[in-house]
Amino acid sequence: MPKLKLDVSMSLDGYIAAPDQTLEDPLGKGGMRLHEWLFGLKSFREQHGLEGGERRSPDDEIVAEITRGIGAVVMGRKMFSGGAGAWESDPNADAWWGDDPPFHAPVFVLTHHQRAPLVKQGGTTFHFVTDGIGSALEQARSAAGDKDISLAGGAAVAQQYLAAGLLDELQIHVAPVLLGGGVRLFGGTVPAPLELEAERVIASQGVTHLRFRVAR
Amino acid sequence: MPKLKLDVSMSLDGYIAAPDQTLEDPLGKGGMRLHEWLFGLKSFREQHGLEGGERRSPDDEIVAEITRGIGAVVMGRKMFSGGAGAWESDPNADAWWGDDPPFHAPVFVLTHHQRAPLVKQGGTTFHFVTDGIGSALEQARSAAGDKDISLAGGAAVAQQYLAAGLLDELQIHVAPVLLGGGVRLFGGTVPAPLELEAERVIASQGVTHLRFRVAR
After folding, report:
1. B212 CB near a chain A CB, below 8 Å?
2. Which among B183, B182, B148, B184 has a CA at the least distance from the CA of B167?
3. Given pLDDT bands bounded at 50, 70 and 90, which one contains residue A25?
4. How close A193 comes to chain B (CA, Å)?
5. Largest alpha-carbon pair distance within chain A?
6. CB-based contacts of A154: which residues, under 8 Å, 6+ apart?
7. Is the per-residue pLDDT at B94 higher than 70?
8. Cβ-based contacts of B206 with chain A (< 8 Å)
9. Which ipTM was obtained for this model?
10. DSSP A3
11. d(CA A185, CA A27)
């Protein structure tokens, strides 16, 4: 069965976005710092339809590995279209992913608003799921084939899947910085304690990749 | 000059103690989980005057390395004597470290109550510092010789030194567990963003050791 996997960049003090998030600056003020390790990578740039970049080992292999293994995506509504504004004033608003989103797979968006699927270029279709995280996961499982499912966030959705015991794997890319505020990946809503199993640790110049299996 | 170093076990969700701390259970309910990797180690048991234990690589070398390099210790008052109760009812209370504390070095305790030094067996003397974190660090530097200084916590004291730009090195031993609550190492009082430099990553069976230098 396809696994549900969360891959996320986090500061050492536990934040996945910085303070003062806006629609223009969804990662908050200084939050791009968390993804600095990612932006220069060839594998990341290819996935986003950008040229250039370097094959920096081992980060590049890790990103390629993640991308290769994903057959479907689940995300929260805010991850699809940012703050509530745009969506609510125009329920057919096109979010911010452009014509050729980087997913290249079916994406299941958790929302309270029904909406017809939104077909994009490059294999990405956004499906809107109004009946909860379990249903979104089931639909993603059917769509993923023999690949896995990426839980694309945000933090609230990640915590819901974790709390429901539905997350199989967690890979945290720890950026060596203290942000001092912002959006915490773990906000204290997890039924605790929750044991994890460290599966793999890979350190590189500017980031440390920690992969865990959620113990059952 | 001696460096000020913080070594601390932390859950993946950022806690260094669990909820419901008491004088009998200073790590909180379930907080011992954070130190599980440590208790069975020969180097740790030797330092605490206990027999047995195993030389489990690489954890054992890491603990021995830390112990060997420390010439003085700085800690908060609560780390010395737990909750306020015991201390305030008897200002000469002996805290909980026993006759032969595991420090084997001068320990500088931050407090508001003046008190004569407390000499213990095995090279540990507790000195009580009432004029602030800078003074405690200066005294520890003089005492440390050519070794370094261990910042023994707790979280509030660690944050004060970090915020004042006085911490040189930070080694976090990440336990693969989500505690969901308790005492956070990084409570959001750090002047942010604060860049770190990842110096070393060592993974073992039940813990991942992440060492950082604080960028200046």
Report:
1. yes
2. B148
3. confident
4. 5
5. 44
6. A16, A17, A75, A76, A78, A79, A183
7. no
8. 198
9. 0.91
10. P
11. 13
Task: Confirm if B130 and B108 have CB atoms less than 8 A apart.
Answer: no
Query: What is the enclosing helix (H) or strand (E) of A144?
Result: helix A133-144
Q: Would you tell me the crossing angle of helices A155-163 and A133-144 to the nearest 10 degrees?
A: 90
With tokens 């057919």, the residue in question is: A92
Please state the rounded mean pLDDT for residues A187-192: 74
CA nearest to B210 within chain A: A208
Amino acid sitting at position A175:
A
Both structure tokens of A207:
């980031």
Whether the Cβ atoms of residue B184 and residue B22 lie closer than 8 Å to each other: no
Cis peptide preceding B154, ω within 30 of 0: yes
Cα gap A68→A63, rounded to integer Å: 9
Which has the closest alpha carbon to A164: A187, A132, A142, A141?
A132
**CA-atom Rg of chain B in angstroms:** 17
Q: Do the Cβ atoms of A195 and B212 come within 8 Å?
A: no
| Cβ contact A192–B208 (<8 Å) | no
Whether the predicted model's global pTM rises above the 0.90 cut: yes
Answer with the residue of higher pLDDT: A67 or B91. Answer: A67
Instruction: Tell me which DSSP letter residue A99 carries.
Output: S
Interchain pair A181, B188: CB under 8 A: yes
Half-sphere exposure of B150 (CA within 13 A, CB side): 21
Task: For residue A196, list chain B residues with Cβ-Cβ distance below 8 A.
Answer: 12, 176-178
Across A78-82, B4-8, B71-75, B111-115, least confident range: A78-82
Exposed/middle/buried for A24, CB within 10 Å: 0-12, 13-18, 19+?
exposed
**B166-210 per-position pLDDT tens digit:** 999 999 999 999 999 999 999 867 777 999 999 999 999 899 999
Contact yes or no for A30 and B203 at CB 8 A: no
- B139 alpha carbon, distance to own chain's centre: 17
Query: Considering only CB atoms, which chain A residues are within 8 Å of B210?
Result: 12, 174, 208
> How distant is the Cα of A168 from the closest Cα of chain B, in angstroms?
14
The whole-angstrom distance between B3's CA and the closest CA on chain A is 20
Instruction: Tell me which amino acid residue A172 is.
Output: I
Tell me phi and psi for residue A155, to 5 degrees: -60, -40
C-alpha to C-alpha distances, A131 to A71, A100, A126, nearest whole angstrom = 21, 27, 15
> How much of chain A exceeds pLDDT 70, in percent?
94
Question: Which chain B residues in 151-170 lie under 8 Å from chain A, judged by CB atoms?
Answer: 162
